[in-house]
């Protein structure tokens, strides 16, 4: 059992809490039974599995340890105190994994044989909002999610928890060159569908059976102006009540499920 916080492996994992170090090493940390289950069941490569004795007492925890060993993952037993140091949660569940960040290309969000539905996230800052948007995209059957430069880190611990494992279910691509990304998406026939609080076509009247890139803008500023230089349409969610707007994650879910309704002939 590792009990010292000066252990090289522990010091390395602790550094992965820093975004810059995660980017340099191309790794991330997931913690908790649910996320580690999803990670080990996915095609993502797991480097290290960390656990406490209590964390593997239950059936699900014990199964995770067994699966990690079967897959040739490094496994380390640590003290509860060390697990608390490594964890981003108040009450750690006693299991944690270090994964390699996958290499994804923009083309991966356009699976063959399916009408394109891509979520384009432009500058969303709240990790919980981003995680919820990814979860909604997964539930709606989107081909993938594109994160434009300026969006909160996908591998932020709060983002990861908010996805509830959905990041392992569909391609998510972080891009630096916004112009080239928008050129590519529109060049393959996608129309950028931008939600606007007022002034757009009522979403229930818009044609969303076409190839759609649903643009999700920054919580305060909305999407960047460059978006509107490419093929796009503006849609608005009718709000007969007195609220001025929806939370960005909630609005995304409503728009995604209007796509689902139209494409699946749900009345």
UniProtKB/TrEMBL annotation:
GO terms for biological process: methylation; RNA processing. The keyword Phosphoprotein does not apply. It comes from the Bacteria. The keyword Methyltransferase applies. Keywords: Methyltransferase, Transferase. Residues 29-105 form the RNA 2-O ribose methyltransferase substrate binding domain. SMART domains: SpoU_sub_bind. Pfam families: MRM3-like_sub_bind, SpoU_methylase. Transmembrane segments: none annotated. GO terms for molecular function: RNA binding; RNA methyltransferase activity. CDD domains: SpoU-like_rRNA-MTase. Gene3D superfamilies: 3.30.1330.30, 3.40.1280.10. One of its GO terms (cellular component) is cytoplasm. InterPro entries: Alpha/beta_knot_MTases, MRM3-like_sub_bind, Ribosomal_eL30-like_sf, rRNA_Methyltransferase, SpoU_MeTrfase, SpoU_subst-bd, tRNA_m1G_MTases_N. Belongs to the class IV-like SAM-binding methyltransferase superfamily. RNA methyltransferase TrmH family. This is RNA methyltransferase, TrmH family. It comes from Desulforamulus aeronauticus DSM 10349.
């Amino acid at each position: 059992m590792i009990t010292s916080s000066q252990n090289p492996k522990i010091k390395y994992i602790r550094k992965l809490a820093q975004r810059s170090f995660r980017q340099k090493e191309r790794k991330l940390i997931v913690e908790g039974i649910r996320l580690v289950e999803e990670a080990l069941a996915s095609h993502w490569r797991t480097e290290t599995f960390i656990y406490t004795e209590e964390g593997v007492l239950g059936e699900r925890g014990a199964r995770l340890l067994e699966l990690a060993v079967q897959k040739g993952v490094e496994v380390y037993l640590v003290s509860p105190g060390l697990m608390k140091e490594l964890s981003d949660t108040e009450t750690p569940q006693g299991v944690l994994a270090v994964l390699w960040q996958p290499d994804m290309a923009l083309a991966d969000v356009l699976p063959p044989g399916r009408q394109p539905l891509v979520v384009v996230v432009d500058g969303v800052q709240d990790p919980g909002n981003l995680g919820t948007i990814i979860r909604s995209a997964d539930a709606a059957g989107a081909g993938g999610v594109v994160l434009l430069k300026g969006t909160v880190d996908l591998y932020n611990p709060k983002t990861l928890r908010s996805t509830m494992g959905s990041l392992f279910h569909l391609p998510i691509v972080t891009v630096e060159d916004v112009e080239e990304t928008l050129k590519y998406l529109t060049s393959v026939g996608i129309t950028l569908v931008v939600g606007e609080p007022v002034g757009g076509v009522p979403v229930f009247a818009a044609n969303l059976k076409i190839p759609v890139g649903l643009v999700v803008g920054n919580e305060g500023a909305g999407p960047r102006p460059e978006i509107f230089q490419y093929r796009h349409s503006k849609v608005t969610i009718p709000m007969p009540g007195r609220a001025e707007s929806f939370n960005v994650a909630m609005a995304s879910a409503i728009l995604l499920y209007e796509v689902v309704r139209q494409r699946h002939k749900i009345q």
